[in-house]
TrEMBL record:
Record-given protein name: Centromere protein M
A Pfam cross-reference name: CENP-M
InterPro entries linked to this entry: Centromere_Cenp-M, P-loop_NTPase
Subcellular location: Chromosome, Centromere; Nucleus
Superkingdom of the organism of origin: Eukaryota
Gene3D superfamilies, per the entry: P-loop containing nucleotide triphosphate hydrolases (3.40.50.300)
GO cellular component terms given for this protein: chromosome, centromeric region; nucleus
Amino acid sequence: HVATSLPLPLETDCLRPRIDLIVFMIDIKSKYSLKNVEASLTHVDASFFLGRVWFLITGVGRMNCCSVDMNAVWKLGEVYCSPLICCELELEGVRVATAQRLLRILQICAGHIPGVSALFFSKLMMKSADD
């Protein structure tokens, strides 16, 4: 399911499936994108951030068109203890690889991969980004 912002409408609450993962997309070419994500973050329960919130940063292939300060994006990941995935969705191969990566993350967050928890995996991904 895709939403442009949070909170989700209450009238569809009874029809909504369980939420296993939230991926916030930030387009570095749009300041509105970052502001929308920042406003939406306040609607997510703090316990949900334990491995089940990720940030997908798009437009990284065109840093010369950047409207968003990347330091603000990195800080967002740190503050919310959530990993960042950077990609360029305009390239089909990268788009497919990113979709596959997100599906694997979703499988982990939904508990379909034995022996790997969402919290462990996200901390592992954050640690590898630091190295």
